[in-house]
Sequence to fold (628 residues):
Amino acid sequence: MVKTEYMYWLALLHSLPLGDSRTVVPNEEEIKHSRSAKVQDTEMGAKLKGMVLTFQSFSLAFDHVNYFVDMPNEIKAEGFTEDRLQLLKDISVAFRPGILTALVGVSGTRKMTLMDVLAGRKTGVYIESDISISGYPKNQETSARVSGYCEQYDIHSPHGTYYESLVYSAWLRLAPDVTDESRQMFMEEVMTLVELNSRFGLPGVNGLSTEQWKRLTVAVELVANPCIIFMDELTSGLDARAAAIVMGTDRNTVDTGRTVVCTIHQPSIDIFEAFDELLLMRRGGQVIYAGPLGHHSNQLVEYFQMLPGVTRIKDGQNPATWMLEVSSPTVEAQLGVYFATIYATSEIYRRNQELIKELSTPAPGSHYILQQRTQPFFTQCNACLWKQGLSYWRHPQYNVVQFLMPTVIRIIFGIIFWDKGQKTSRQQDLMNMLGATYAAVMFLGGTNTSSVQTVVSPLLYAFAQVAVEVIYVCIQTFIYSLLLYSMIGFVWSASNFLFYLFVFFGTCFLASLSLELKYQYGGDGITGGWYYWGSLVAWTLYGLITSQGGQNENLVEVPGAGSVPLKEFIKSYMGFEYDFLHYIAMAHVAWLFCSLLCLHAVSNFLTFNKDRCFCSSAKQFCEAVLRY
Fold:
């Protein structure tokens, strides 16, 4: 009995969380003392917590941040003459390691805009700011490698496991000098931290629950070993229990010594008081409070209640709800005050400015953020190919559409046009063969276009996505061509069949990328004949028909013209010349290359990054192709 009780208490002692909880904010002297300690101690976090990979704990200080965008035409039409619209106005705050900060505000306060600016996700706009990381000016290329960003919407490949998702993130984002053993151990530590290990499937359908998806999003960022983490409303759409679990993950992350900032919208009292500090914004992009919450939010409540006319909080009332109510524009109008101005003249603002000044000065013995090297090109390609291959293989709906349906249709086409390939004694027989070729091209291409939408984003991911798609299209095209070619009865020769296969592959592949197979229009509605050659289908039909009949000497009975050799009929009646086949092959290769270039360029535009253009995307793509 004594031994059992001893083991029980030992287990409880072992299960205590690492480090001290910072939910209850200490007094002013302790805060002041901790500031100096945090600035001087840059080697904390994972090293102190016993994790495999160490990291530097960084503070984030920003002084007088102003953010502008071009004035919309709708607003200019109302009489405004300014060229720019200001979204963030003179925001100055500091975020520190080991402190869980809540970024709160009603809709329209632009709290997400502020977090995107701090994370470097806003480009092509006008930003006036003084942002520093542990005293050194923020550089996006280096800071992006020491920070993580958890999106509000959990977007993950639905056909993998939790572990595979972490492997992919760690494989690409950890430094190249991290060994496989260290990476494996670090991923297991992160998996233990968030307490998940299963196949996650589709949200709300199978696999992980909604709150587990949230924790997965956090884990994917944690395996990159960031020092600063931005989280976008991770508790949105969750019940109280699920939100508490997610907040437990956030607290564990903060306790490792990382700087964590979360946007949150009207939280419950338990969630709200789990934070250490608060950044409260009003509509118009201004700060009305930035500082510690205190025990049971006492410091926040004291700040607002000392303002004349502010309604006192009721017993048991949620401080977050009360705070948003008393700081609303309606209350400002009733009291005749402006909370942003009151904050700018308050004692807490003065203390924040002192803290920003302190954190904007590098600590003695510290060094600038080291530029972390990216993974080699082939390592990135290998990781992307591995991930995309698993995603395709575990997608049965895709495989059924990609193989089963075309197989059934090709058998139907083969039965309809059975043995028509070489029976061309009459013009009608030739038209039947041409009709079979055209229908086969249009149907398979149309099936790929409507059912499989290839998603392409940056260059390496696009390469992996396309490379995996190529494997499936190759298998599909070979089966389709072999059955249809043999059942229709085209000329059996290696050159004819291989060219037929090559042209079919190009058409099916581009159709799977949804870049071809457009609506059909009448010829009278097309200006000029150039439009005909602007479609890959025209080149495909040219190659298929010419390769099968361009050297055929069999006579074809043409009404009113007598018997004409098939190759002459194709040349005179349709304008297809056999000597033009090598240009057809070159055209297909050019179409494939240009399509990949367009996909990469469009993927850059879809990031809404105005700093990028088509020329830069084309240059990057060509340089990568020539280099590798």
Observations:
- DSSP finds 26 helices and twelve strands in the chain.
- Residues 156-225 form one domain.
- The first helix runs from residue 2 to 14.
- The longest strand covers residues 84-95.
